[in-house]
Amino acid sequence: MNAAKIDLHLHLDGSLYLPWAWKTAVKRGVVETECTFEEYYSRFHRRNFKTREEGMKRFDFPVDVMQTKEDLADAAYYLVQTLSIQQMFYAEIRFAPQQHTKCGLTQREAVLAVCDGLERAKQDFPDIDTGLLCCLMHKGENAHVNEKENFETVEVVRELLSDRVLGLDLAGYENTGDFLLYAPLFEKAHSYGIPYTIHAGEMGDGAHVMDALAMKANRIGHGINCIQNPEWLHAVVESQIPLELCPTSNTRYELGYAALPVRQLLDAGARITLNTDNMSFGRTSLAHEYDMMRSVGISQKELWQCAWNAADAAFCSEARKERLRERLREEQNKKTE
Ligand SMILES: [Zn+2]
């Protein structure tokens, strides 16, 4: 009945199942024992950040409840449960393993713990297929600050690349230093045959989208600021690189969804997918993202195209993509009956 079935851009830390996160936060001492669910919920949804940098720090809050194998696995499990209730077909969930080593886990152990949670969820919710992307982080003043940790993530993904661990991402505050300082990480990933997406042109300069293209990204996270320059937009359209748009995340509240350049990107011929980014922070779901786009004039046909683009752009095997296409076809036929 609806096209909102495939999410390629979904952060584990921004999409926690909050009743579980609250209980875990209390148990682990992340919040005081008397913190009620309502208080936790409102802290999770705090919006009054003065700067983008301060806004990025809000991710420390959910990350602190995922510092043990058990909690990482449970977080992944409950996210898939939520997606299953939403009748989703497929999701690529991402997280940054280097953020989960505060209590002594190695990055490798953190990745395997999330894989365990996804595996457990697969048994209980077989209708949804999932994969994992590991994020490298923009952190500190420039790429050298955590270069060692970022290279470690690349090596861990190289070792664990499978039908579960599907690829890499670059996340964090994209205006941290020179974007191209991250190129050596992706040269290495490319040489290993690891697929990757890069957050670029979201909150930062649209020129970063050009940098991500130069770094041979397979997809671009957000990328909407490529419209700042006709040449950049032209390059995105020419390359047909899939853009992972996340409307709620990119909407400034005072402007609303209509201010997003989605129509402009579609009319220019860009290859668009629609995603949630951070379901809990954004209080959203993929169905809501599609609904919001419909409400600003994106046609049903165009929305279906976004879903088909997502199936094509997924990092899973061709056989799994074919299964997704089959299911989309069935869903689309239901709609027209
Ligand atoms: Zn993101």
Outline of the structure:
The chain is built from 15 helices and 8 strands. With 337 residues, it is an alpha/beta fold.
Question: What features would you describe in this structure?
Answer:
With 337 residues, the chain is α/β, with parallel strands linked by helices. Helices cover 47% and strands 13% of the residues. The strands form two sheets. A four-stranded parallel beta sheet has the order 1-2-3-4, sandwiched between helices. Strands 5-6-7-8 form a four-stranded parallel beta sheet. It is globular, with a radius of gyration of 19 Å. The termini are close together.
The ligands found in this model are: zinc ion
Low-confidence segments, given as residue ranges, are none
Distance between the termini: 10 Å
For this structure, the quaternary state is: single chain
On the 0 to 100 scale, the average pLDDT is: 93
- Largest sheet features: 4 strands, parallel
Count, helices: 15
Beta-sheet strand percentage? 5-15%
Gyration radius, in Å? 19 Å
What order do the SSEs take from the amino end to the carboxyl end, as H and E? Answer: EHHHHHEHEHEHEHEHEHHEHHH
Q: Spatial order of the strands in the main sheet?
A: 1-2-3-4
- Secondary-structure content class: alpha/beta
Number of strands: 8
Write down the overall geometry: globular
Helix content class? 40-55%
